[in-house]
Write a structure and sequence with these properties.
The structure holds two protein chains of two kinds. Chain A has helices spanning 2-17, 27-42, 44-65, 69-91, 94-102, 104-109, 115-144, 149-176, 183-210, 216-247. Chain A has one domain (24-247). The two termini of chain A are 39 Å apart. By secondary structure, chain A is an all-alpha fold. By secondary structure, chain B is α/β, with parallel strands linked by helices. Chain B has a domain at 5-92 and 152-206: 3-Layer(aba) Sandwich (Rossmann fold), CATH 3.40.50.300. Chain B has helices at residues 43-51, 73-78, 94-104, 111-120, 136-148, 167-182; strands at 5-14, 17-27, 31-36, 58-63, 66-67, 79-82, 155-159, 186-190, 201-206. In chain B, strands 6-7-8-3-9 form a five-stranded parallel beta sheet, sandwiched between helices. In chain B, helix 6 (167-182) links the parallel strand 7 (155-159) and strand 8. The longest helix of chain B is centred in the C-terminal third of the chain and has 16 residues, at 167-182. The radius of gyration of chain B is 17 Å and the shape is globular. The mean pLDDT of chain B is 88. At the A-B interface, helix 1, helix 2 and helix 6 of A face helix 2, helix 3, helix 4 and helix 6 of B.
Chain lengths: 248, 207
């Protein structure tokens, strides 16, 4: 017992001797980003299952509708985009639910950094761990549908711009439904309508390219949506989390 | 000591039921508040209210004269809350958990400091074991190890900190608490233990 006391005193002494450095305002976001990415690496099965889901759903379509090249080529943008959207939706319910369960969500709300920035770190980690792989593999899947190399490039670029919006907007519904019993169904109902604009302009970019039209307008709109979501979603998520934890 | 926590006419209703009302209390630096009461009396709700996680149904909680709701992350720097859930990530080791918790709380302890805190918490040899493989008491110790590095935060709010702790760990926690009170910190905790820190200035609130 006395030994324990001595160590405590030592620990306290060393803690006071080296005064903790004040951390910058982005430190919180970086901390959460690192934490969630490390968690995603520890739980590779979860990360990879969303990717497997995406690949499987996309691959089912050519099997279902038959191998007619013209039909497949015109379907490809929509199919790939809807599959990406569903795969993202699959991973979103756990964005805050795990943290809520083990009590770390409370710690985020009581952290010394602004909550919207912590949320931004969390959403960024979600995008990197569950959407980025999906974006990178999409040109490969586009081959199954007979898309040209340039169309596959446009598809990948549209996903690169669009999937962060899916993560950000989905985080809002994830925050609103955290702690609820039927969270995942409710989340899908809340989120899918909000995904419509991203789907229209994301798939639309590839269709426009296939039709020989310019894709600049589509990309501008996707970029605008991304900026809007980046600026707005973290604030809304932070407010939603505070509301959800009031009753939890 | 200016760090004063005050509850003004505080009331709480949860799920349509009045848990407590008209709660008035002042807590100065170096004082401990022990909240006791039957299960479901609203102890945890009161603690969450002090942290600003729940908006009071009536009245307000003030920290240094300011309502806690308006303080935001500035209050987070002054507060350590260890709730009923330990706040540990199962996939992380106690060391990783401790370092992330400290960084979120605005501290940046060095590796030796964090290791010393875990050692003092009786987790020597378990620093690198994933938290899911620890026993209930060890998880509790891992969460409470944060306190050994939290002397910069004047207010500690602890929900049943002695739960699942063995005698040695309970002694360790008492030492930590009295050291915190001696440097004019504030402690608010719920506990069923009555003989707690006999020498310390403490108030008991029965809900």
């Amino acid at each position: 017992m006395t030994a324990a006391k001595v160590t405590v005193v030592n620990a306290l002494a060393s803690a006071t001797a080296l005064a903790p450095a004040r951390v910058g305002w982005l430190a919180g976001a970086r901390c959460v980003l690192q934490r969630d990415l490390r968690l995603a690496l520890r739980r590779r099965a979860d990360t990879l299952s969303a990717l497997a889901f995406f690949v499987m759903v996309v691959s089912l379509f050519p099997l279902g509708v038959g191998p007619e090249p013209a039909l497949l080529r015109s379907m490809a943008p929509g199919v790939l985009w809807v599959a990406a959207l569903l795969a993202t939706l699959l991973t979103l319910p756990r964005l805050f639910a795990d943290d809520h369960q083990d009590g770390t969500l409370e710690q985020l709300l009581l952290a010394a950094q602004p909550l919207p920035l912590l949320v931004l770190g969390k959403v960024l980690a979600h995008w990197v761990s569950s959407c980025l792989l999906l974006v990178l593999i999409s040109p490969l899947l586009a081959l199954q549908f007979g898309l040209s190399a340039s169309a596959a490039g446009v598809l990948m670029l549209s996903l690169l711009l669009g999937t962060p919006v899916l993560s950000l907007v989905g985080a809002v519904s994830a925050a609103l439904t955290v702690g609820l019993r039927s969270a995942s169904v409710l989340m899908a109902l809340l989120t899918l309508p909000l995904y419509i604009p991203v789907l229209i302009f994301g798939a639309g970019a590839v269709q426009a390219h296939n039709a020989g039209l310019g894709v600049g307008g589509h990309f501008s709109l996707l970029g605008a949506m991304l900026l809007l979501a980046l600026a707005g979603a973290p604030l809304v998520v932070a407010a939603a989390l505070r509301i959800s934890l009031e009753s939890a | 000591m200016t760090a004063v926590l005050s509850l003004g006419d505080l009331g709480c209703a949860r799920g349509g039921r009045q848990l407590f009302s008209g709660l008035n209390l002042q807590l100065a630096g170096g004082q401990m508040l022990r909240v006791q009461g039957a299960n479901g009396a609203g102890k945890t709700s009161l603690l969450r209210m002090l942290c600003g996680l729940i908006t009071p149904t009536a009245g307000e909680v003030r920290w240094r004269g300011q309502p806690v709701a308006s303080l935001g992350e500035a209050f987070g720097r002054e507060l350590v809350y260890i709730g009923h859930a330990a706040g540990l990530k199962d996939d992380f080791s106690p060391l990783e958990n401790l370092e992330f918790a400290c960084r979120l709380g605005g501290d940046n302890p060095s590796r030796p400091q964090a290791l010393a805190a875990l050692q003092a918490a009786g987790l020597g040899g378990f620093e690198q074991v994933p938290a899911r493989r620890l026993s209930q008491g060890q998880r509790r110790r891992a969460a409470l190890a944060r306190l050994a590095l939290a002397d910069a935060a004047p207010l500690w709010v602890l929900d049943e900190p002695f739960n699942a702790l063995d005698a040695a760990a309970a002694d360790w926690l008492q030492v930590l608490l009295s050291a915190h009170l001696q440097r004019a910190g504030l402690v608010v905790l719920t506990s069923h233990q009555t003989a707690l820190l006999p020498g310390a200035a403490q108030q008991v609130l029965a809900l």
